[in-house]
Write a structure and sequence with these properties.
With about 100 residues, the chain is of the alpha+beta class. The protein has helices at about 5-15, 55-70, 90-95; strands at about 30-35, 50-55, 70-75, 85. The protein has 3 helices and 4 strands. β3 (about 70-75) and β4 form a beta hairpin.
């Protein structure tokens, strides 16, 4: 199966010569909050729902509201944020009481 290369194959070997520009979309969301829904409140197959946020303070406000209703809440940073941070349900209360980082 010797096929002649098409014009698309040629574009991948030489960078900057006729190749299409690559658009990388930066995800503005850096935090997630995941809520566990008890069996009687499930709305489908999954018992967890997650939501993403642009800042830790936004994530904390949402998590605090869900935590006050008695929901099991977890939170953390999304890739490629470093250092990675994961807040387990047992640590949510401490995380909510932490002072906000100065860069937000």
């Amino acid at each position: 199966m010797n096929q002649e290369p098409n014009r698309h194959d040629q574009g991948t070997t030489s960078i900057g010569k006729g190749s299409q520009p690559v658009v990388i979309k930066k995800n503005p969301n850096t935090w997630y909050v995941s809520i566990y829904y008890p069996q009687q409140e499930k709305t489908g197959h999954y018992s967890r729902r997650s939501r993403t946020f642009a800042s830790e303070s936004e994530a904390k406000r949402f998590a605090a509201a869900k935590f006050e209703t008695g929901a099991e809440v977890t939170a953390g940073t999304l890739n490629p944020v470093a250092p990675k941070r994961i807040v387990a349900p047992m640590g949510i209360e401490n995380w909510l009481s932490e002072a906000e980082p100065p860069d937000e």
